[in-house]
Amino acid sequence: MKNKKIKFKRIIQAPNSYFMDIKCMNCQKVQMIFSHAQSTILCENCSAILCKPSGGKAQITPGCAFKIKN
């Protein structure tokens, strides 16, 4: 519940966006992307679609694994 508050109403203001490592489901190459990407992200090796923009956070393609970078 604490993380779901609006960013301006938190005691310490922080952004909702983050960078993450995403692994391609076809060639297993790891790429770093932004969580709120505004364009379709393609794999550098095999040109598979990794995520699509959705108006807020980017929608990750099913089958792709990701890890949030701190």
TrEMBL record:
Keywords attached to this entry: Metal-binding, Ribonucleoprotein, Ribosomal protein, Zinc, Zinc-finger
SUPFAM superfamilies in alphabetical order: Zn-binding ribosomal proteins (SSF57829)
Bilayer-spanning residue ranges: none
Cofactor(s) needed for function: Zn(2+)
UniProt record, GO biological process: translation
Details of cofactor binding: Binds 1 zinc ion per subunit.
PROSITE patterns, sorted: RIBOSOMAL_S27E
Coiled-coil segments on the chain, per record: none
Gene Ontology CC entries for this record: ribonucleoprotein complex; ribosome
Pfam family, any one: Ribosomal_S27e
GO molecular function list: structural constituent of ribosome; zinc ion binding
The keyword Metal-binding belongs to this UniProt entry's keyword annotation: yes
Entry similarity comment: Belongs to the eukaryotic ribosomal protein eS27 family.
PANTHER family: 40S RIBOSOMAL PROTEIN S27
Protein's UniProt name: 40S ribosomal protein S27
